[in-house]
Amino acid sequence: MKKIKTALISVSDKKNLKPLLDTLKKNKVKIISSGGTYKEIKKLRFNCLEVSKFTNSSEILEGRVKTLHPKIHAGILNKRNNKFHLRDLKNNNFENIDLVIVNFYPFEKTLKETKNHNKIIEKIDVGGPTMVRSAAKNYQDVTVITSSEQYKELIDELIKNKGSTTLEFREKLSRVAFSETAYYDSVISKYFNKISKTIFPKKKIIHSNLIETLRYGENPHQKSGIYSENIEMNIKQVHGKQLSYNNYNDIFAALTISKSLSKNIGTVIVKHASPCGVSIKKDHLESYKSALACDPISAFGGIVSCNFKITKRLAVELNKLFLEVIVANGFDTNALRLLKSKKNLRLIDASNYSFKENLKFTSSNQEILIQSDDLNKLTNKDFKTVSKRKPSKQQMKNLIFAFNICRYVKSNAIVLATDETTAGIGSGQPSRLDSCQIAINKMKKFIDTDNEIVAASDAFFPFVDGIEKLVQSGITAIIQPYGSIRDKEIINFANQTNTVLVFSKTRHFRH
Amino acid sequence: MKKIKTALISVSDKKNLKPLLDTLKKNKVKIISSGGTYKEIKKLRFNCLEVSKFTNSSEILEGRVKTLHPKIHAGILNKRNNKFHLRDLKNNNFENIDLVIVNFYPFEKTLKETKNHNKIIEKIDVGGPTMVRSAAKNYQDVTVITSSEQYKELIDELIKNKGSTTLEFREKLSRVAFSETAYYDSVISKYFNKISKTIFPKKKIIHSNLIETLRYGENPHQKSGIYSENIEMNIKQVHGKQLSYNNYNDIFAALTISKSLSKNIGTVIVKHASPCGVSIKKDHLESYKSALACDPISAFGGIVSCNFKITKRLAVELNKLFLEVIVANGFDTNALRLLKSKKNLRLIDASNYSFKENLKFTSSNQEILIQSDDLNKLTNKDFKTVSKRKPSKQQMKNLIFAFNICRYVKSNAIVLATDETTAGIGSGQPSRLDSCQIAINKMKKFIDTDNEIVAASDAFFPFVDGIEKLVQSGITAIIQPYGSIRDKEIINFANQTNTVLVFSKTRHFRH
Q1: Is B229 within 8 Å of A366 when comparing Cβ atoms?
Q2: Cβ(B57)–Cβ(B68) under 8 Å?
Q3: Considering A85, A137, A241, A340, which one is annotated as catalytic?
Q4: Of the N and C termini of chain B, which has fewer Cβ atoms inside 10 Å?
């Protein structure tokens, strides 16, 4: 238990000071403060000693140097039970500082407000983090507060312990303090990496904010939480049970596809983080019905992601199926009312969600694999017809659609498509031939059409056999990256069978 | 271009100072230093002014407060082209510090050397990071060096520019400096989280060290690098081409399985980050041959991971197959010589690799999903036979083996096994029934045995149909988690068909 006699307050965020100052006053705590905080405290009519008076050293360099003074840091850093420290304090006529209340210049917020480098640099707080680090290091004796959100618990603690704090309380605050300083410098570091276009620095630090802890991870015996680089996520749950780890994983898989589609178009159905039906038919209801028709069995218990606002007409259809989650760019009032009739169904508004240029990382044990994301949009120019038979406009449209979806299917990935809708998805197989077979089986089971069906492969076919299997099943046009030493054989086979063959410039593995 | 007249040196790592001091001397740089660094510089016979003399303020609190002084920080932080700053400096009789050479108390190293909390806390550097942050903030005027590895480039820069540094150089160093301070506090933050058992703090910061940048990511148009929480990874490449992103991804998938097996036992073959054959036969050569026999087609171009040391006898066999990578707990000399005959084949020694209790994270856009890993070992106690027919010892062994492998296969996962070897793996399907079919197809294609074949499912069968399909294909024993509302029907079906049915307590989704 440590009695608080002297507090140093230096806050950029000046919210909620009044009740805190009331409590400090009641406990006869001496307050030292600098700059704007001093003025604020005086305005609130509390006693306060200016830092410059305390240190007898004036505030200089337009505020750049205020608290970087031995009297301040010895006051914070001295071990109260160490006689050498006590002696040093006495000899220098220094005194203890027991409570440090500091929050930093808003560097992160400034990044969002300006692109002016000098203004940004000016917001790198030096004095604040130093006081916080001193206090957090010496938490055995010192209490450190780093956010106005902590005032309430400090007030409670001081009331409970008659002006003192417990070691447990101080240790917890010290833990939070170091997460604040680490976070703060991580944001600065990221900014410097960004402006210097340094993608893979020698030391990489990733900062994130807890969005929520989850009931469990992929399985009930795993602990889990979701974090974001931002304070809030840009998706909003408007109804239903708490989202699970697997829900989030599915939602992100679905949004990666949905947000790659043209504005206001497309339905994606995801199960086990893999698409089982996608349609980009312009009519919203049709796009849902078509996506569902690809594999209605897998869709059961899955998630539906609509890249448009859901209307009542669609909501009626959606309500016929058991779904875990529906994601959409909003819901109209009637649709929402209808969908809310299912108590557990999670409804997600992703209107504001969009993909930024981000690095994607995945960890295994203590290692982290980092790569730039694979989100570049593909257009006609990225493809080259290599067969004698040229694709019709309709075929080309379906080929590009199939290839674009194929990119988001786990490798080896084969996507069959017709009529702007997937007609069979083969995913996650070590053998490309097996992925072909899975896609074909799906097509045979669920698709009933007279229209031509096309196929896309996320990487090149190493042999003729895969393409042969597709052609034998009635596929008339195929798109794939080039690169096999048997490309010529494959082109010959396409020509022999009058199949359209298009090569893409890029491969799109996704594991 | 900024001329360096005064340098402040305060280093915990005292390596390589001599050549640097030579260069500084040649350029007539005044040196200020504190504590151990001062002694070291004097020992090397260079002139040096003690910090306490410079500030006229003695080193106190056993070194806790040395450089936290306005004269130091004004000297670093003042903007040389700002007349107010110039005036403040003059009025206070302060002088410029143009070069800051600081490295921190070795907090991370100390963590590895001791569990003594007080000793660890004492290694939290306050003065060092503050000087570095001041200098890095003011990089327009100040040069900051944070590691002895940077001395060489500083020397080169000073020679090239006759005692000055360029803005570009200083900005780069500033970027590195902030990555150092962020990294440093991230390690401290992680330590505090660990001792307080805080798994999901409000602000989470992940620190990592670049192991190497990779040629590209999953695809040639993606940039990539591999990082580790440690300075070095515990795997060692002993031969072959540079590892690719996909190689690393496959290696980690393989090691997750290999290292879960009993000591010195088991071969795992991985393709596209998914196992396509696993055997735990005691004879090493047999285990490889059996793992390969499960799916020799998929194994082509894959990676083989042996949870034992590879001998010549096995190397001869391995050399018959085209492989990207071989991972093993070492290679004996003859094996290594033989395997090295393939120039491109990557050989990885993973003898020292082991799994720690780590959080696993995966990012999507700006969000990060974090969960504890699913590595708990399962034993007989975790399972309960629910059918009338009880498993034989052999069946139970194969069931547990199949279930343990099933955990590492992408969901929905079905693993068939016989004779301590997988006999068919169905992975990554939105429908469990499809995964059954894929596993059965593999079995029918590749497995020729009179022994009983058992099946494992990573999650419960929602309906009887999956289990029915397995039994129809000749499977005589099945293991799965419980939890379907149709569990009773499934038990009844098992009893009707005289099938062994074992329930596991835990589910093991992996997406």
Answers
A1: yes
A2: no
A3: A137
A4: N
* Minimal CA separation from A476 to chain B, in Å: 26
**Residue that the structure tokens 């007898």 belong to:** A56
What average pLDDT does this structure show over B415-441? 96
CATH of B232-349, picked from 3.10.20.740, 1.20.1050.10, 3.40.140.20, 1.20.58.340, is: 3.40.140.20
Alpha carbons within 13 A on the beta-carbon side of A265: 12
What sections of B300-420 are H helices per DSSP?
Answer: 312-318, 333-339, 393-406
CATH number for B2-195 (one of 3.40.640.10, 3.40.50.1820, 1.10.645.10, 3.40.50.1380): it is 3.40.50.1380
- Output phi, psi for B31, to 5 deg: -115, 130
What average pLDDT does this structure show over B331-335?
A: 97
**Any idea which of A75-79, A284-288, B168-172, B447-451 has the lowest mean pLDDT?**
B447-451
> Using a CB-CB distance cutoff of 8 angstroms, which residues of chain A are in contact with residue B271?
430-431
| Known active-site residue A342 | no
* Chain B residue with minimum CA distance to A355: B365
Q: Are A477 and A452 in contact (CB under 8 A)?
A: yes
What pLDDT is stored for residue B191 in this prediction?
A: 98
Q: Do A371 and B223 touch (CB under 8 A)?
A: yes
Contacts of B81 (CB under 8 A, 6+ apart): none
Q: Of A399, A425, A398, which is closest to residue A412 (Cα–Cα)?
A: A425
CATH 3.40.140.20 fits B380-504, yes or no: yes
DSSP annotation of B378: P
Residue B340 three-state SS: coil
B432, pLDDT greater than 90 = yes
Residue B205 C-alpha, separation from nearest chain A C-alpha, in angstroms: 4
Residue of chain B minimizing CA distance to A87: B61
CATH 3.40.140.20 fits A234-349, yes or no: yes
The yes-or-no verdict on residue A35 having pLDDT over 90 is: no
What are the pLDDT digits (tens) for A495-511?
999 999 999 999 999 99
Name which of A345, A347, A484, A510 is nearest A425 in CA terms. A510
Query: Which of B60, B298, B371 is nearest residue A88 as measured by Cβ atoms?
Result: B60
- Cα distances from B68 to residues A72, A251, B386, in angstroms, run 9, 50, 70
- Angstroms from A486 CA to nearest CA on chain B: 16
Pairs of residues, one from chain A and one from chain B, whose beta carbons lie less than 8 Å apart:
449
Residue A425: phi and psi, rounded to 5, are -125, 125
Q: Among B59-68, B137-146, B293-302, which stretch is predicted with the lowest mean pLDDT?
A: B59-68
A205's tokens: 């630090």
Residue B225 CA to residue A403 CA, distance in Å, equals 27
pTM: 0.95
A272 is catalytic: yes
Residue A216 has a CB neighbour count (10 Å cut-off) of 16
Nearest neighbour of A430 by CB, restricted to B137, B172, B298:
B298
Contacting residues of B for A60, CB less than 8 Å apart: 70, 74, 85, 88-89, 92
pLDDT digits (tens, 9 = 90+) for A43-92: 999 999 999 999 998 888 888 889 999 999 999 999 999 999 999 999 99
pLDDT at position A38 is 95
What six digits make up the tokens of B35?
């504590």
Question: Which residue out of A272, A312, A340, A342 is catalytically annotated?
Answer: A272
Name the residue among B387, B105, B374, B359 with its Cα closest to residue B260.
B374
Contact B204/A181, CB-based, under 8 Å? no
Write out pLDDT tens, residues A416-466. Answer: 999 999 999 999 999 999 999 999 999 999 999 999 999 999 999 999 999
Q: What is the pLDDT of residues B463-478, one digit of tens each?
A: 999 999 999 999 999 9
Per the CB < 8 Å rule, is A227 touching B196? no
| Reported ipTM | 0.95
- Determine the distance in angstroms separating the CA of A193 from the nearest CA of chain B, rounded to an integer: 7
